[in-house]
Structures are given as C-alpha cells and as structure tokens.
C-alpha cells in the first residue's frame, strides 16, 4: 500500500515537472518572439513583403521605406 502511494506520488511529481517545463519553454519562446519582432508584413503602399526589423513603423502600420510612408 505504501509502495502504491509512493508510485502515484512519483507519477504526479513527474507530470507536474513536465507541465512546468513545457510552460516555461513556451514563455521563453514568447519572450524571444517579442524580443526579435522578425515578422513578414505587407507594405500598405506597394504591397511588398518586408520584415518588421527593416520597416518604417507609422500609426501601427509597417512601410518598406520612407517614400512609401509619404505616398500612402
Ligand atoms: Zn512600400
């Protein structure tokens, strides 16, 4: 009976660790996404796809260049 209880406790402990680890890994991935912000977006003026890193951000929209920002 004690062995059975111990076995259940160990299984629960392993399940807890696996879930905890998964959540932590998810959080790390989310943080990375926010940090790098490397996402492909469409320029509203010329419909060219550019990465958010190289884009010009204005009013929540990503433009490929300052020219497109002016000619919007
Ligand atoms: Zn453009």
Task: Report what the structure shows.
This protein is α+β, with helices and mostly antiparallel strands. It folds into two domains: 36 residues; 35 residues, Wheat Germ Agglutinin (Isolectin 2), domain 1 (2-Layer Sandwich). Helix content is 56%, strand content 17%. The chain is built from two helices and four strands, in the order αββββα. The chain has a two-stranded antiparallel ribbon. A two-stranded antiparallel sheet has the order 3-4. The longest helix is centred in the first third of the chain and has 35 residues. The chain is rod-shaped. Bound molecules: zinc ion. The site of zinc ion has 8 residues, from loops.
Note the gap between the termini: 74 Å
SSE topology string = HEEEEH
Q: Give me the oligomer status.
A: single chain
The largest sheet is:
2 strands, antiparallel
Roughly how many Å is the radius of gyration?
A: 24 Å
Biggest sheet: strand arrangement: 1-2
Estimated structural class: alpha+beta
Can you count the beta strands? 4
| Residue runs with pLDDT of under 50 for 5 or more positions | none
Number of helices: 2
* Number of individual domains: 2
Topology, element by element:
Elements: H1 2-36, E1 40-42, E2 49-51, E3 56-58, E4 61-63, H2 66-70
Antiparallel strand pairs: 1-2, 3-4
The structure holds zinc ion (ZN).
In short:
The protein has helices at residues 2-36, 66-70; strands spanning 40-42, 49-51, 56-58, 61-63. With 72 residues, it is α+β, with helices and mostly antiparallel strands. Zinc ion is lined by residues 43, 45-46, 48, 63-65, 68.
Question: Which keywords apply here?
Answer:
single chain; 72 residues; alpha+beta; Wheat Germ Agglutinin (Isolectin 2), domain 1; 2 domains; two-stranded antiparallel sheet; two-stranded antiparallel ribbon; 2 helices; binds zinc ion; transmembrane helix; membrane; transmembrane; PP0621-like
